[in-house]
Amino acid sequence: MEKHYAVIGDPIEHSLSPRMHNAGYEALGIDAEYQRFHVKPSYLAEAVDGLCALGFSGWNVTLPHKEKVTSHLDTLTPQARRVGAVNTVKIHEGKRIGHNTDGDGFIRSVEGNLNGFKGKKAVLLGAGGASKGIALALSAQGMQVHILNRTPEKATVLVELIKHWGGTATSGKFAPGDWIEDVDLLVQTTSVGLRGEPFPFSVQGISEKALVVDIIFNPRETAFLQEAKKQGCRTLNGLGMLLYQGALAWEFWLGGQAPVEVMRQALYRAQS
Ligand SMILES: NC(=O)c1ccc[n+]([C@@H]2O[C@H](COP(=O)([O-])OP(=O)(O)OC[C@H]3O[C@@H](n4cnc5c(N)ncnc54)[C@H](OP(=O)(O)O)[C@@H]3O)[C@@H](O)[C@H]2O)c1
């Protein structure tokens, strides 16, 4: 193999990224291989040095390393600096460049379903790592962002970060409120629903114009998404975000356009 890529994380065995990237290399006849490696937090520095020593051209980074890995890199792109987290590393002329494609991957996954972003209202449920990347990316597109989190202090910190980068953001109670009537984009970013459990509150009465996204992709349709669909909203799960963060990482590494449809089909196959 001429080029080697990987994803590192803990746990990592359920990662669908190798299936998606390897299907793309095969379709375009690229002499490359994408692997996954289980890296415990205490071995992160050694793992990064090891990937460099073994001649890897780049790798993805997933939980719990996205923030810690930044201190083992030479430089960060503006997207990674803004979020303070890295999901993609590229080796370029011997330098380790950290990038973040999560937020822009989310944007790509929803843009075909929204008639523009500027001046519209986004409500984010959750203020963890995924919410941070999505909130900053939506704000950079000119959306007004309202953040609701079970632990309100974390929503406040995220609002301040968005304002620091010039965006408009507010936070509120983790409950239904006035926002429900005029939200354009509602994004469920908490881990509630991963095990089939119901969401802590109902979105009954939500504006029918809202696009509702749950970034969980397994199960394919959480109870939260099922309820939004019953209310007449258009809905999307998190598979599109996974696909497009991968496509953007591909393009960062290899240039050109990633074979998005091939990668999407590989994800569908891996899920079935
Ligand atoms: N589609 C994709 O490509 C993609 C990418 C990244 C992540 N994800 C998914 O996104 C989800 C969150 O990931 P993350 O990295 O942001 O995790 P994280 O940093 O650990 O944040 C977890 C979030 O969930 C909230 N939460 C957890 N349990 C809750 C409960 N019982 N009730 C209310 N809120 C609760 C937390 O609230 P507190 O602050 O109050 O604890 C926090 O806001 C996961 O399901 C992950 O699989 C999907």
In short:
With 272 residues, the protein is of the alpha/beta class.
Topology:
Layout: E1 3-9, H1 17-28, E2 32-38, H2 44-53, E3 58-61, E4 75-76, H3 78-83, E5 88-92, E6 95-99, H4 102-111, E7 121-125, H5 129-140, E8 144-148, H6 152-164, E9 168-172, H7 179-182, E10 185-188, E11 211-214, H8 223-230, E12 234-236, H9 239-254, H10 260-271
Parallel strand pairs: 1-2, 1-3, 4-6, 7-8, 7-10, 8-9, 10-11, 11-12
Antiparallel strand pairs: 3-5, 5-6
The structure holds NADP nicotinamide-adenine-dinucleotide phosphate.
Residues 63, 126-131, 149-151, 154, 189-192, 194, 200, 215-217, 238, 241-242, 245 line the site of NADP nicotinamide-adenine-dinucleotide phosphate (NAP).
Question: Would you give an account of this structure?
Answer:
The protein is of the alpha/beta class and 272 residues long. It has two domains: 3-100 and 243-271, Rossmann fold (3-Layer(aba) Sandwich), CATH 3.40.50.10860; 104-237, NAD(P)-binding Rossmann-like Domain (Rossmann fold). The chain is built from ten helices and twelve strands. A six-stranded mixed beta sheet has the order 2-1-3-5-6-4. Strands 9-8-7-10-11-12 form a six-stranded parallel beta sheet, sandwiched between helices. Helix 4 packs across helix 5 (129-140), helix 4 crosses helix 9 and helix 9 (239-254) crosses helix 10. The longest helix has 16 residues, at 239-254. Bound molecules: NADP nicotinamide-adenine-dinucleotide phosphate (NAP). NADP nicotinamide-adenine-dinucleotide phosphate binds next to helix 5 and helix 9.
